[in-house]
Design brief:
Protein name: MoxR-like ATPase
Region (Disordered): 308-336
Number of helices: 14
Structural class: alpha/beta
Organism: Halopelagius inordinatus
CATH topology of the largest domain: Rossmann fold
Strand order of the largest sheet: 2-5-8-1-9
InterPro entries: AAA+_ATPase, ATPase_AAA-3, CbbQ/NirQ/NorQ/GpvN, ChlI/MoxR_AAA_lid, P-loop_NTPase
Pfam families: AAA_3, AAA_lid_2
Helix content: 40-55%
Length: 336
């Protein structure tokens, strides 16, 4: 299963045995998985954020851990610590739950900044330092965190550095009435439907193969310019104090390649960065004071910035000449 579209279809179909709707969320989770990114799911209580993350993890069959964040959770509870063994007279490293392929960090903003910072090294560098010793994390490694946007009691705001570690921030909304009706019907017929009933449909080798396919997706120079124009538009906006960073542009490029592959294409089209601009960029910009006083949200500001940019109109698919030499595209160099 080295084709990303086949991999995503298998994940979506298996997840549908428990979930109703949420296809776009599953697609964006797959996009992040195939580019080595991390995802933040935000939504009000009861919209199945944690269930989506657990269902996604179980379809992959990878080592999975859930960390319930609370104000009294210590960094060592996440990363691990060393303990002294009297029987041997030596210190032994006890690894924390972060040493898993997929880690669901539930209600990340309920942890103190000190505990939140324990995730920074893991998410950025794929390693953890315990008592001065550095340990690599397993591959693949992915963090899916959840956050409740309305209950602020007992929470700690995520700093920009923490937000920036997430490739995508996905809003999980209340479903439309038709989907909610289907949800009620399903749980009326099967009250004991649970994420642990999900079967593994993807292996680690499938993920590695699909990642290699994503790296070879063709990106026309005009598409790279389009991504740069979108990023620059967020910086030029009067509604932002700080626009998107170069790292945000890199993530928009890599996720666009993954979206193209998931949708069965070996080349990126303007609709790819256009569709992903908000989940990739919105949590990385800082609104201006006037924008905050006007109750503007970052997603609408990014949407306006994208609308201000004219997408390329010519053919961005690789030509026959471009793939005739060894079957490789001239830009298929994994610009990530």
């Amino acid at each position: 299963m080295d084709e990303p579209d086949t991999l995503y279809t298998a994940i979506r179909d298996e997840a549908a045995t428990v979930l109703v709707g949420n296809e776009s969320v599953l697609e964006e989770l797959t996009v992040s998985l195939l580019t080595g990114g991390h995802v933040l799911l935000e939504g009000v209580p009861g919209v199945a954020k944690t269930t989506i993350a657990e269902v996604f993890a179980r379809t992959l069959g990878l080592d999975f851990q859930r960390i319930q964040m609370t104000p009294d959770l210590m960094p060592a509870d996440v990363t691990g610590t060393t303990i002294y063994r009297e029987t041997t007279g030596e210190f032994e490293t006890k690894r924390g739950p972060i040493f898993s392929n997929l880690v669901v960090v539930d209600e990340i903003n309920r942890a103190t900044p000190k505990t939140q910072s324990a995730l920074l090294e893991a998410m950025q560098e794929g390693q953890v330092t315990i008592e001065g010793e550095t340990y690599p994390l397993p591959e693949p490694f992915m963090v899916v965190a959840t956050m409740n946007p309305i209950d602020m009691d007992g929470t700690f705001a995520l700093p920009e550095a923490q937000f920036d570690r997430f490739q995508l921030k996905i809003d999980v909304d209340i479903p439309e009435r038709e989907l909610e009706s289907a949800l009620l019907e399903r749980f009326d017929e099967t009250p004991d439907l649970r994420p642990d009933l999900i079967r593994q449909v993807v292996s680690a080798d499938d993920i590695y193969a699909a990642r290699a396919t994503v790296r070879d997706v063709h990106v026309d120079p005009s598409i790279r310019d389009y991504i740069l124009d979108i990023v620059q538009s967020t910086r030029d906006s009067t509604d932002t104090a700080h626009g998107a960073s170069p790292r945000a542009g890199i993530h928009l490029l890599s996720s666009s390649k993954a979206r193209a592959a998931v949708e069965g294409r070996d080349y990126v089209i303007p609709d790819d960065p256009k569709a992903l601009a908000e989940p990739v960029l919105a949590h990385r910009i800082v609104l201006s004071t006037d924008a905050e006083l006007s109750d503007l949200d970052s997603r609408s500001v990014v949407g306006d910035a994208v609308s201000a940019v004219t997408p390329p109109t010519h053919d961005v698919a690789p030509s026959a000449e471009a793939v005739s030499d060894g079957g490789e595209h001239p830009n298929a160099d994994g610009d990530e």
